[in-house]
Structures are given as C-alpha cells and as structure tokens.
Amino acid sequence: MNHNSELSLAQDLIFLEAEHLDQKNWDAWLDLYTEDAVFWMPTWINESQTTTQPETELNLLYFKGRSHLEDRIYRLKTDDSFASVPSARTVHLVSNVRLVQTDQSHLTVKANWMVHSYGIHGALNRGGYYEYKLRKINGELKIAFKKVTMIDDKLIGPVDVFHV
User: Fold this and answer.
1) What value, to the nearest 5°, has the Cα angle with vertex 83 and ends 78 and 89?
2) Element (H, E) at 75
3) All residues at 6 or more sequence positions from 62 whose CB lies less than 8 Å from its CB, including other chains
4) DSSP bridge partners of 115
5) Regarding the domain delimited by 3-150, which CATH topology (the fold level of the hierarchy) does it fall under?
6) Which residues pair with 126 in a beta bridge?
7) Cα–Cα distance between 16 and 28 in angstroms, integer?
8) By C-alpha distance, which of 101, 106, 111 is closest to 12?
9) How is 10-49 classified by DSSP, letter by letter?
10) CA–CA separation, 106 vs 89, rounded Å?
11) How many beta carbons lie within 10 A of that of residue 79, not counting itself?
C-alpha cells in the first residue's frame, strides 16, 4: 500500500468516526476501536505542556480498553450520565490530517479538530489536536489509540467523548 492510499484510508476512518459521534451512532463508533484501544485526553500542566503519564497523572478523559469505552457509551445510551443529560448536539470538523509514520501493522496519524456543540450550556466551540495509532486488522483500519489534546484550559460545561 502506498502513502497516498494509506492516508486516504486513515482520513476516511477519522471522518467516519466524527460522523458517528455527531449522529450518536454509538455502536458503529465503538466498532471503529480495537479491543485494547486507549482513548486519552490529557490535562495541561502549564502553558506549553500536557500530562504525559495517563496512569499516574490527572486526565480529562482516560479509557484503557474498549470495555471502558463500552461502559461509557452504555451510560450515554441509558441517560445514566448526569453530566451528559440532556445530550448536546455536535458537529465535528477535522482537518490537516497527515500520516506521520507507518509500519507493517500501524499508521500514526495526526489531525486538527474543532467541535461546535449546542446544549444546556448554549453554544460552545472547542478545538485541538488528535493523534491516532491505527492498526491494520484483516485489511481494515481500526483505532488502537486516540489522544485528544484540547487547546482550551478553562472548561465550560461537560467534556465527554462526543464533545471532542
């Protein structure tokens, strides 16, 4: 597979993930992730550094393994998440998707994002950077790792998997 086709497949996956989040198509969103997937959103330590050790430092979000993502989605689907009821409407804008590394089994991809949401706290705009490790499984790409760095350090309203 050449660089352009790998990048195109990665973009398709990332854009599809954004669409599933906006449509709250939770089961299809979960299907994009590997069983051992990590979803991590670090916090800012100072103006230029975020946390680097999700196991021992404070995070905005940290889900290790798809089963933890499934637990989160279960709470969203059953309205058992006080912070996310009522659920905000969102639109994800993903750009500057670039393939930064590839090997036999993984692609490392970075992108920029903005999410506009509307809910109980009114209209909110957030933005930042994504870093993905995409795993090749049976000719298909799956998300094995997603790091979400939000440039905001003051939060208004809740932050959940669909807000970023």
Assistant:
1) 80
2) helix 66-77
3) 38, 39, 40, 41, 54
4) 92, 126
5) Nuclear Transport Factor 2; Chain: A, (3.10.450)
6) 115
7) 9
8) 111
9) HHHHHHHHHHHHHHT-HHHHHTTEEEEEEEEEEPBSSSS-
10) 32
11) 11
The answer to whether the beta carbons of residues 158 and 76 sit under 8 Å apart is no
Q: Say if residues 125 and 114 touch (Cβ distance below 8 Å).
A: yes
Determine contact, residues 160/76, Cβ cutoff 8 Å. Answer: yes
C-alpha 90/C-alpha 163 separation (Å) is 7
Q: pTM here?
A: 0.93
Alpha carbon distance 119, 13 (integer Å)? 27
- Secondary structure element (H or E) that encloses residue 114, with its range: strand 106-119
Q: How many residues does the chain have?
A: 164
Whether the CB-CB separation of 134 and 141 falls below 8 Å is answered with yes
pLDDT tens string, the chain, 164 residues long: the values are 677 899 999 999 999 999 999 999 999 999 999 999 999 999 999 999 999 999 999 999 999 999 999 999 998 888 766 566 678 899 999 999 999 999 989 999 999 999 999 988 889 999 999 999 999 999 899 999 999 999 987 888 788 999 89
